[in-house]
């Protein structure tokens, strides 16, 4: 009681000095710490320059405020201190949105190219594409949250953010964590389903299915841990000020373990196909292209490791809205780059159609010089402008022709010719009717093709003006 009376007496004596200061918005406990610490120092209460530049005095004020004020009052006092001393906090709200738009846009472009490859390319839509579609939906939501979370104040120092906004930021961050864990697992599962389409080896497929299961378990377990990290659940975004009681697990430990397991799964998915790829006989160009794709995969792992390092202050920070930024933007980079890596094989197949010399293994030359039995060069269906496609539905068999072969008699080819036959290989017109067949034969060590077309009367004839060369590798 005597101490309180003494304090009131001191404040009354210092009233003229306090009147010269703008103490609007300063909580009582913070003002008390400022006054008592300054009075016991060499600085005058009205000399803000001395107070702001005296490191020992600032440390004493901070210690007093931390011990005697609530978290909300601490933030208000910190804000007053910054404004009185003319200090400006760091503002990183813009970089959050920029990274989300740039990398999210790149991931979306990669997925669109993947879908385009499925529409016009030789491969049908598969399980890997369906999983990637689901991952893309989550990724769009993940990047879109960067707008409201940055507008609420993520990227500013916590004492410059309105208290209700801090709660809103932590709630949005809670949703972000769930999306992040889910989309990373889906990306790896999509890549594993793609492996199943490429590699038929039984032992390899068993390992692939095992990794798919592990990724599913990882996503489900950590999503549940994140959802129920606090009891009640709303404690995940309401306990920051110490005024809401909840029982929570260590978010720091949860973040570290999730990141470490994710890195291990990344490496497992990257290294799984390497032994099978090593056994393949590939050209240098294809080897370089595959190495480029895996280099992107390793980049994702490096980003995950850097993000793991940024988790050091995660869950123990006293400046949540500033210290969570680094974890957030590394996550924003990691997710879209993972989608780009998973879409690269499909994008490569699309580019092989547009740039066959660079990405493909097939080169073709078409000429159209038909005789009186065929259509005119301006309107024929077999000319250079033809959009007809060769649809291959079955495997080809390699048969040697003998002198008694009726095809040999009809086309007068030698014994050295080898024909690739398949009843599912046909060239169709716009109405789906077959218009010509293709016979590939070997001449002097080089594969060449001969078109056998049908005229409007159903008679077959050879088109000597049509040739197709194909590299068989």
Instruction: Please state the average pLDDT score.
Output: 74
Fraction of residues in β-strands: 5-15%
Report the sheet with the most strands, covering strand number, pairing sense and barrel closure: 5 strands, antiparallel
How many structurally independent domains? 3
Number of strands: 9
Radius of gyration, taken over Cα atoms and rounded to an integer in Å: 35 Å
Q: How would you spell out the order of helices and strands?
A: HHHHHHHHHHHEHEHHHHHEEHEEEEE
Q: Tell me the helix content.
A: 55-70%
Quote the CATH topology of the largest domain. Answer: Rhopdopsin 7-helix transmembrane proteins
Distance between the termini: 95 Å
Sheet with the most strands: spatial strand order: 3-6-7-8-9
Form type: elongated
Q: Give the helix tally.
A: 18
Q: State the CATH architecture of the largest domain.
A: Up-down Bundle
Ranges with pLDDT <50 over ≥5 residues? Answer: 1-20, 361-428, 451-473
CATH class of the largest domain: Mainly Alpha
What structural class should be given to the helix and strand makeup? Answer: alpha+beta
């Amino acid at each position: 009681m005597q101490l309180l009376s003494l304090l009131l007496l001191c404040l009354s004596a210092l009233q003229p000095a306090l009147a010269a200061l703008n103490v609007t918005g300063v909580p009582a406990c913070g003002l008390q710490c400022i006054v008592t610490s300054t009075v016991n120092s060499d600085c005058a209460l009205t000399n803000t320059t001395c107070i702001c530049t005296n490191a020992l005095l600032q440390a004493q004020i901070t210690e007093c405020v931390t011990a005697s004020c609530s978290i909300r009052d601490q933030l208000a006092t910190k804000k007053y201190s910054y404004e009185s001393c003319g200090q400006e906090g760091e503002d990183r709200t813009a970089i959050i949105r920029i990274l989300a738009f740039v990398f999210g846009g790149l991931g979306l472009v990669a997925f669109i190219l993947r879908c385009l490859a499925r529409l016009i390319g030789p491969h049908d839509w598969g399980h890997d594409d369906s999983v990637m579609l689901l991952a893309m939906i989550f990724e769009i939501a993940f990047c879109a949250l960067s707008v409201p979370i940055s507008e609420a104040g993520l990227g500013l120092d916590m004492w410059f953010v309105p208290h209700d906004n801090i709660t809103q930021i932590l709630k949005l961050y809670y949703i972000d964590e769930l999306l992040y864990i889910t989309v990373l697992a889906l990306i790896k599962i999509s890549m594993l389903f793609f492996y199943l389409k490429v590699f038929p080896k039984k032992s390899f497929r068993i390992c692939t299915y095992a990794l798919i299961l592990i990724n599913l378990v990882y996503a489900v377990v950590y999503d549940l841990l994140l959802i129920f990290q606090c009891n009640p659940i709303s404690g995940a975004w309401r306990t920051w000020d110490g005024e809401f009681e909840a029982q929570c697990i260590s978010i720091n430990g949860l973040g570290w373990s999730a990141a470490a397991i994710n890195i291990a799964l990344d490496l497992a998915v990257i290294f799984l196909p390497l032994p099978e790829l090593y056994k393949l006989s590939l050209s240098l160009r294809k080897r370089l292209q595959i190495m480029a794709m895996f280099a992107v995969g390793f980049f994702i792992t490096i980003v995950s490791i850097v993000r793991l390092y940024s988790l050091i202050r995660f869950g123990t920070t006293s400046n949540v809205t500033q210290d969570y930024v680094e974890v957030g933007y590394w996550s924003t980079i990691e997710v879209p780059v993972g989608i780009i890596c998973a879409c690269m094989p499909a994008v490569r197949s699309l580019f092989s159609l547009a740039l066959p010399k660079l990405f493909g293994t097939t080169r073709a030359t078409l000429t159209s010089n038909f005789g009186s039995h065929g259509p005119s060069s301006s309107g024929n269906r077999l000319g250079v402008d033809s959009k007809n496609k060769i649809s291959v539905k079955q495997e080809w068999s390699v048969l040697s022709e003998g002198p008694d072969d009726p095809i040999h008699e009809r086309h007068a080819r030698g014994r050295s010719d080898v024909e690739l036959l398949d009843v599912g290989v046909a060239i169709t017109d716009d109405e789906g009717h077959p218009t010509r067949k293709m016979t590939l034969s070997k001449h002097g060590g080089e594969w060449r093709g001969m078109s056998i077309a049908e005229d409007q009367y159903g008679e077959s004839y050879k088109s000597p003006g049509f040739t197709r060369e194909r590299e068989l590798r």
